[in-house]
Write a structure and sequence with these properties.
It is a single chain. This protein is an alpha/beta fold. The chain has a single domain, classed as 3-Layer(aba) Sandwich (Rossmann fold), CATH 3.40.50. The chain contains 11 helices and 9 strands. Strands 1, 2, 3, 4, 5, 6, 7, 8 and 9 form a 9-stranded mixed beta sheet that branches. Strand 3, helix 1 and strand 4 form a beta-alpha-beta unit. The protein starts with 18 loop residues before the first strand and ends with a helix.
């Protein structure tokens, strides 16, 4: 049964057309926002965001005959966990349990930022559960190291040493977005940070989830595997240092050696938070990918 936004604490940001559910799996009560009917799509939010990241994009996808599921991942949004510990594959196991609880055998997966890490874990370890994948603002994990990408991780120390209550609104301003977001938009993205358990999850997510996966990338773990799920990688053209030139060099040989089918797309006038800078363009790219690749 869907629950109204006003019954949640703090209140959920408003977004027309969504149903809100709590899905119980062992040790977890996942808040899930759903819209539309049809073939299943799962959208995995980035950091420090939650389901509302997709409030403009999900309805556009749903309008073309899809049922779009936007969960709050463990340590974010309105999802509650019995155990606060987060390790490298915790969110992957959560997602698999959620898909099973919903009866979803296979879905399109759209992801951004930290959500993309969960998505690529799913596509490599459980490709039978994924129809297609779209990674937003994150390179494919088979990317070769290039020193020019180092500034792309300049934000990580702030997460590794995050103090509870420290503001995160600076990440919604240039250079991470093309134009600073309105204060009410930033407040909607950060509303769950007032929940002590969510604020406390910033360090574990960085130290036990992101860093171990980054080390696996750097050590070439994913370069020794093959990506079989059709994957579209999308970046904003103003998401420095992730330029088309750098990504082309770092991800060369994708079709012949690392993956069955990978394509890259670039969105003008968009930076890291491409879903906020250019939601209509992202929705169009996603729908085109779903239609072209089966």
């Amino acid at each position: 049964m869907s629950t109204p936004t006003s019954t949640w604490s703090p209140a959920l940001p408003e977004a027309a057309g969504f149903e809100h559910h709590v899905v119980e799996t062992p040790g977890l009560r996942t808040h899930l926002a759903v819209i539309g009917q049809g073939e299943p799509v799962v959208m995995l939010h980035g950091f420090p965001q939650h389901w509302w990241q997709w409030h403009d994009i999900a309805p556009a996808i749903a309008a073309h005959g899809y049922r779009v599921h936007c969960p709050d991942l463990r340590g974010a949004g309105w999802t509650e966990a019995d155990e606060p510990r987060i390790d490298r594959e915790t969110r992957l196991h959560d997602l698999l349990a959620l898909l099973d609880a919903l009866g979803i055998a296979r879905a399109h997966v759209v992801s951004h930022d930290m959500g993309a890490v969960v998505a690529w874990q799913l596509t490599y370890d459980h490709p039978e559960r994924v129809r297609t994948s779209v990674l937003l603002a994150v390179p494919p994990p088979f990317m070769a190291f290039d020193p020019r990408i180092i500034p792309g991780f300049r934000h990580l120390p702030k997460f590794l040493w995050h103090r509870r209550g420290a503001p995160l609104d600076g990440f919604f301003s240039p250079p991470y977005v093309v134009r600073p977001m309105p204060s009410e938009t930033v407040e909607a993205h950060l509303a769950p940070m007032s929940i002590p358990e969510i604020d406390a999850a910033v360090r574990p997510l960085s130290r036990r989830f992101v860093v171990p996966e980054a080390m696996r990338m750097a050590s070439g773990t994913y370069r020794r595997r093959r990506l079989t799920v059709p994957t579209l990688v999308v970046f904003g053209r103003r998401d420095w240092p992730w330029t088309e030139r750098v990504l082309t060099r770092a991800c060369r040989d994708t079709d012949s050696r690392r993956a069955d089918h990978v394509e890259f797309a670039y969105v003008d006038d968009a930076a890291h938070y491409v879903t906020d800078d250019a939601p209509a363009e992202v929705a169009d790219l996603v729908l085109d990918w779903f239609g072209r690749v089966r």
